[in-house]
Specification:
Residues 130-183 form the Sigma 54 modulation/S30EA ribosomal protein C-terminal domain. Interacts with 100S ribosomes. It is found in: Cytoplasm. Strand 7 and strand 8 form a beta hairpin. The longest helix is centred in the middle third of the chain and has 26 residues, at 72-97. The protein has helices at 14-31, 72-97, 146-156; strands at 2-7, 35-45, 48-57, 62-69, 107-115, 133-144, 160-165, 171-176, 182-185. The protein folds into two domains: 2-97, Double Stranded RNA Binding Domain (2-Layer Sandwich); 107-185, SHC Adaptor Protein (2-Layer Sandwich). It is of the alpha+beta class.
Length: 187
Amino acid sequence: MRYQITGKQIDIGSALQTHVENELNSVVEKYAERPTDANVIFSKSAAEFVCEATIHLSTGLTAQAKAHAHEIYAAFDQCSEKMEKQLRRYKRRLKDHHRQRSEPVELSEASAYILASDSIGEDSEPDTLQPIIVAEMETKIPSLSVGEAVMQMELAGAPVLVFRNEGKDGLNVVYRRDDGNIGWIDP
């Protein structure tokens, strides 16, 4: 498994990197068969350290966790506990579904854009109807069943997930509704 451990405007020592690799390795070996890579980013927000971890599995699913603490090791330990909980739930769901995926999830290329939010008041009109693009990047759209898409969305903690439906050859969307239920858009 490949590890990428970085710090945003803080220095990450070799002792912390070794601790992160050992702890993540023990968590991942317990619950996931074939992880491909792990990204861990440390940053500082006011008086707290923030740890964000992402683990990509060979099945195409991604587990993410984020934690805050006053000490950097404590932030990582909390993040590691959240990651372990997600991977344990993921493994339990796979056992519950009794479905063996013989091949990894197929991914399609797509463009993702981040648009600037409006900072103007409700009464004033914008100068132009074209939004300002803050960032443009490549993203992957997985080919999943609806159940796997809901599981991936919950694992990632995302409010919405766009995926290519395995049963049909079209793009679908699952999202968390305001009432707490999951919505599924199948055009």
